[in-house]
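Supplementary Methods, section 5.1.

A reviewer requested that the exact input to the structure prediction be made available. We therefore reproduce it here, unchanged from the version used in the analyses.
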Amino acid sequence: MLAQASPCPVHFHLGDVMSFTMQNMFSEDRRRDWSEGLPGIRIIGNLPFNVSTPLIIKWMQAISEKQSAWSYGRVPLTLTFQKEVAERMIATEGMEQRCRLSIMCQNWCNVDHRFTIPGKAFIPKPQVDVGVVHFTPRVHPIIDLPFKLIERVVSCIFRYRQKQVYKPASLLFPKRKRQLVVSLLERACVKPILRPYQLSVQEFGQICLAYRDMCEEMPGLYEYTLEDTPGDIEPEAVAEQEGEGDEIDFNKL
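The structure derived from this sequence is encoded token-by-token as follows.
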């Protein structure tokens, strides 16, 4: 039916969108250098709500690595999301909706919430309204570091988005080395009393860069995960260090 209604040829690919790759789907004459104009390819989708967030994170990684459809250049996307998710993607520093998704999307793309479609426009009618969001990949990301490192830092800090940033940031370090969060934030020139949602993408970039440098100086730090120490302290107690029992003096930062 769709093929008959279309004025141009339509090809269907059936599969799991989470594992599907668009690496070789398009003709070579559509390929453009990343710094050139946009290629003649567009990705448009009405996404199922249950996969929309993991899918856009997967595609942000593909954009960062210039893989899949983005091996052809800066292919833009126009996608639908639950309205609340769309608002998180465009949220700027200080906004209540600011979250991990905001940083991950805005770092690699210019993100624009174009308009909202009321739920009653769909059959069957969803319980929420739908936001239409347009993504245009940036020529250069704001934070020009590996995707996994950025994801690690941003995800860790937004675990406790209402806490002062030094508390979740300290979880990047093993329990007995939590004092290193002082050095991390000093190097990043980020005020430790700010909340994660108050930080700009650039400030997250400064934290990521400082964390990368510390990982290079301390082999094994990057391999550490919070789950490696099941008896870890609660975020509220991060300022209390084991051993000598010293407290972190954040007034010095």
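Residues 188 and 207 are 5 Å apart (CA to CA). These observations are discussed further in the main text.
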